[in-house]
Design a protein that fits this description.
This protein is mostly helical. It has one domain. It is built from four helices and no strands.
Length: about 180
């Protein structure tokens, strides 16, 4: 029995000495000898940011393209209807002018949206990410505002065309305003 106790005490002593040595020999998580250096962490963060930006841009593109396609269809349809009303003797110059303004605003919105996409893509590489992101958000907001203005002009053109059509139906031949 004495040998059993001696072996147990000797094993416990050896374990007590070996465990701290192993703990001292292992590098700390934030140690310079760690394989994850500051550059690697920054690179990982930039990659994560790029992925998040790409996902957000994909969702934004879907919404912007959907609204843009709808607006383009309305502008085209109103242009065709204005041509038919004009052929029947209606004065559609104001309608066509509003439609051309709406098309110009829509084209401007698409160009501004492309600028915003480029600015968002440049955010991970910027030295001041916060300022770059705010600038990109501002440009994106301008694109949305221009799209809304184009939609408003298209709605105004539709109202004008409705007035011209009502005027033709009543027999006057021009818009009742």
């Amino acid at each position: 029995m004495r040998t059993w106790k001696k072996l147990l005490v000797a094993g416990a002593a050896a374990a007590a000495i070996a465990v701290p040595a192993v703990a001292v020999a292992a590098p700390a998580a934030g140690d310079a000898a760690s394989p994850r250096t500051a550059g690697a962490v920054a690179s990982d963060r930039a990659a994560i940011l790029r992925t998040r930006i790409q996902l957000a841009l994909e969702r934004r593109k879907l919404r912007f393209d959907r609204a843009g396609n709808t607006l383009q269809r309305h502008i085209t349809r109103l242009g065709v209807l204005a041509g038919k009303v004009g052929a029947k003797g209606g004065d559609v110059t104001s309608v066509k002018d509003l439609l051309s303004q709406a098309q110009a605003k829509f084209d401007s919105a698409k160009a501004t949206e492309q600028q915003a996409v480029q600015q968002f893509n440049a955010v991970p590489d910027a030295t001041d990410k916060r300022a770059a992101f705010q600038s990109a958000k501002s440009t994106a907001a301008q694109a949305v505002a221009q799209l809304r203005e184009a939609r408003s002009l298209t709605q105004q053109a539709a109202r004008e065309l409705r007035g011209v059509v009502d005027g033709l139906r009543s027999g006057s031949g021009s818009a009742a305003q």
